[in-house]
Design a protein that fits this description.
alpha+beta; five-stranded antiparallel β-sheet; 6 helices
């Protein structure tokens, strides 16, 4: 149970949020919904994003199997994009492809942009190859423009889903990634909304509320929530998504 200083009460279900959990790893699970919500308040601030996928060639993937190496590579990618003029961005690792159980790490990035020129793409490929220590001919860099709210939200849903669905695919890597912070953002996100999440349907309508709750703040008045105690399932009120509930208390 949780309550803010003004008496608004909430409850939340406890989940492990691991990719390979048979509950948390499912699409649209509470864990997936929570990850989406944390990005909503940011992506709503731009009308168009470039979706950039930074892949790692097979011959050097063995170099990126530790929390330290993956963390350093994620930071290097962020700084590379900042040097290319992308002052804001969001990023998240995928560990496996959609149709493969072979380790295939790739970094998904969303940056506010309407388009990328051929020269920008060339600079990105050259820089990424230099970071990985491979020839530019080995760099596979994918870019797609998301220029409508529906496309942006679809991409957020895709990026934030789980990809390491069974720890037995790579047991040593699963042990290494426990506690690894897989997602990150950079830049200042304090602009006015360019469009409304609520207008995109029921699936997204409570995104802001869940995002606030994920930060430990009351969606009604942005004051801190103190969590303590438990409640019976029959006492739950309105489900907000991601395992959060608006219960009794001040309405």
């Amino acid at each position: 149970m949780g309550k803010c200083e003004h008496g608004h009460e909430y409850a939340k279900e406890l989940n492990c949020r691991r990719d390979w959990c048979p509950i948390c790893g499912k699409e649209d699970s509470n864990a997936h919904q929570a990850r989406k919500a944390r990005w909503f308040s940011r992506v709503v601030q731009a009308a168009s994003f470039a979706y950039i996928v930074l892949t790692i060639p097979p011959e050097v993937r063995r170099n990126y199997r530790t929390r330290e190496s993956l963390g350093d590579l994620g930071t290097a990618a962020k700084r590379m994009l900042q040097r290319q003029g992308f002052a804001q961005g969001l990023r998240r690792w995928h560990w496996f492809g959609d149709r493969s159980k072979v380790y295939h790490p790739h970094l998904n990035c969303l940056v506010p942009s309407g388009w990328l020129s051929k020269e920008q793409l060339k600079r990105l490929k050259t820089s990424w190859g230099r970071i990985l220590g491979v020839d530019v001919s080995r760099v596979n860099l994918k870019v797609r423009i998301c220029d409508t709210p529906r496309k942006i939200l679809h991409r957020v849903k895709y990026i934030t889903r789980a990809t390491f669905l069974d720890w037995r695919w790579d047991e040593s890597l699963a042990r290494e990634l426990r506690g690894f912070r897989n997602s990150g953002t950079w830049g200042t996100w304090d602009g006015a909304p360019a469009w409304e999440v609520e207008a995109e349907g029921e699936e997204y309508s409570n995104g802001y509320k869940v995002a606030m709750l994920e930060r430990g703040l009351c969606p009604e008045d942005q004051t801190p929530i103190t969590w303590s105690g438990v409640t019976r399932s029959g006492m739950l009120g309105i489900h907000l998504g991601a395992g959060y509930w608006r219960t009794g208390g001040r309405q």
